[in-house]
Design goal:
Length: 324
């Protein structure tokens, strides 16, 4: 394919620093156009980021002959329709997480990928960050022996500090997001479990709207048994006191424990040889390592760093944790 010429559909807050500027900082990649339904905001984004073209209609952007790849960064309710339209045109696609609102929509997207000449990758970009790759390396090297259990705790207040600012809090509108803050944050966490431990054997959970502060459930619990006999237990609560807020993953093995935050920059290793803390600095544009892998994949130079099939499994797990 040669140069990957990107168009962003939905140039909102998530693209300001995390992804947008990175598209033009990778060899063989360039951001050539952006789209937002508010034309003035699309024009402003293009001007501030030095992007040559902007649109207020996604179909017009996808019809631009210069574009051969699109990044879909809208709320999840629009991911499926935009992805289907892009794939039908043979464009390559990068979809923000969660890939869709539910597993049914994810399967429709996966089917469309099979029918299209275009390729698709899901934005589980922690797979490409050095910190989380280091955890994978430690597990592969048996740094804590055989893995027995993983404990995930994501407890935040009703206004989590991890959530990007937006004019309307669409993240707690299930019609737009698929659920609540769980749907916004848990995909990163659960995808890493799939990345580390492979195929799940079974999973179950429950959710409830405990506080009634928003229309969305704010308390989710779930368990996963992987085929390699690793057990994952997760607790997501978005109505605790600020003093009790935590973001913790503990991977416990037969000879030690690895602890890290999903939204932090350190790994704590405790095993028979002692204790160690490894500190990391995430890249300024946190999606840039992932986008680098995607550019290589789109050019047939590397495998897909996050295939749609794995995103379907993730959405199956999320549905199981949040179904009534």
């Amino acid at each position: 394919m040669g140069n990957i010429n990107w168009g962003i559909i939905g140039c909102g807050n998530v693209t300001e620093k995390k992804s947008g500027p990175a598209y033009s900082k990778i060899p063989g990649s360039k951001l050539v156009a952006v789209m937002r339904r508010d034309a003035a905001k699309a024009a402003d984004y293009a001007k501030r980021h030095g992007v040559g073209k902007w649109y207020s209609d996604a179909n017009e952007l996808m019809a631009d002959p210069e574009i051969n790849a699109v990044s879909i960064a809208t709320p999840p309710a629009f991911h499926l329709d935009y992805a289907l339209a892009a794939l039908k045109k043979g464009l390559n696609v990068y979809v923000e997480k969660p890939v869709t609102r539910n597993a049914g929509e994810a399967r429709q997207m996966a089917d469309a990928v099979k029918r299209s000449n275009g390729k698709l990758t899901v934005a589980h970009y922690r797979r490409a960050l050095p910190m989380f790759l280091k955890v994978k390396e430690l597990l592969a090297n048996n740094a804590i022996g055989d893995i027995r259990t993983v404990q995930i705790r994501m407890w935040k207040t009703s206004e989590p500090d991890l959530i990007a600012n937006s004019e309307t809090n669409w993240r707690v509108d299930p019609a737009l997001s698929g659920g609540g803050y769980f749907h916004d944050l848990a995909p990163h966490q659960l995808d890493l479990m799939l990345f580390y431990f492979g195929e799940p054997e079974r999973y179950h959970g429950f959710s409830l709207n405990q506080s009634g502060v928003t229309p969305a459930d704010d308390h989710v619990c779930g368990e996963i048994l992987f085929k390699n006999k690793v057990v994952v237990n997760g607790s997501w609560c978005f109505n605790v006191a600020e003093s009790e807020a935590t973001d913790t993953c503990e991977i416990i093995g037969t000879t030690g424990k690895i602890t890290f935050p999903f939204f932090g920059t350190f790994i704590h290793i405790k095993n028979q040889t002692g204790e160690q803390i490894l500190n990391f600095a995430h890249p300024g544009h946190i999606q840039q390592p992932m986008i680098t892998k995607i550019v290589a994949y789109f050019n047939d130079e590397a495998p897909n760093p996050c295939p749609m099939e794995e995103a379907v499994t993730l959405m199956d797990i999320m549905d199981a944790f949040t179904s009534k």
